[in-house]
Amino acid sequence: MVRSKENLFGAYAFTAGVVLAIIIGLIQTTLGIGSSIPYIVLVILGLMIGFSRVGDSDSMTFLLASTSLVIVSGMGQSTLVFISNINSVLSSLSSILQALLVMFVPATIAMALKTVFSITNI
């Protein structure tokens, strides 16, 4: 399989963002640190992912997967908030889902805007 170098930056930003979101979610729960700087980094990574160069077929796949992830993470996070007082593992999972939402919402919006503009040929 031949790898495309045009998509390499987006792939690295995506991987770094997911790992960072998991770390931020775990740190938020265990240490209780409430800084907004890690979330700003996640938003910037999300925008970089969304505006990275992706082919037409890959952009539709990304949009479908990221929209599904945003919906499920949002619903899962709001559901886990109610029962997070019972178990610290569920509280950690809720924080991780929140961090993933912070990264994927800007990425999905940027990719959707890019796709709409490419369809209209502006």
Q: Can you walk through the features of this model?
A:
- The chain has 122 residues and is mostly helical.
- It has one domain.
- 81% of the residues lie in helices and 0% in strands.
- The chain has four helices and no strands.
- The longest helix is centred in the last third of the chain and has 32 residues, at 88-119.
- The chain is elongated and about 50 Å long.
- The model has no long low-confidence stretch (mean pLDDT 79).
Percent strand equals under 5%
- Counted beta strands: 0
Give the terminus-to-terminus CA distance. 33 Å
Shape, per Cα inertia axes: elongated
Helix vs. strand class: mainly alpha
- Secondary-structure element sequence? HHHH
Low-confidence spans: pLDDT under 50, at least 5 residues? none
Report the biggest beta sheet as strand number plus sense, adding barrel if it closes.
Answer: none
Estimated helix fraction: over 70%
Q: How many separate structural domains? A: 1
Radius of gyration, whole Å: 16 Å
- Mean pLDDT comes to 79
Helical stretch tally? 4
Keywords for this entry:
single chain, mainly alpha, 81% helix, 0% strand
Describe the secondary structure blueprint for this structure.
Blueprint (H helix, E strand, L loop, with lengths): L7 H24 L5 H15 L4 H28 L4 H32 L3
Short description:
The chain has four helices and no strands. By secondary structure, the chain is mainly alpha-helical.
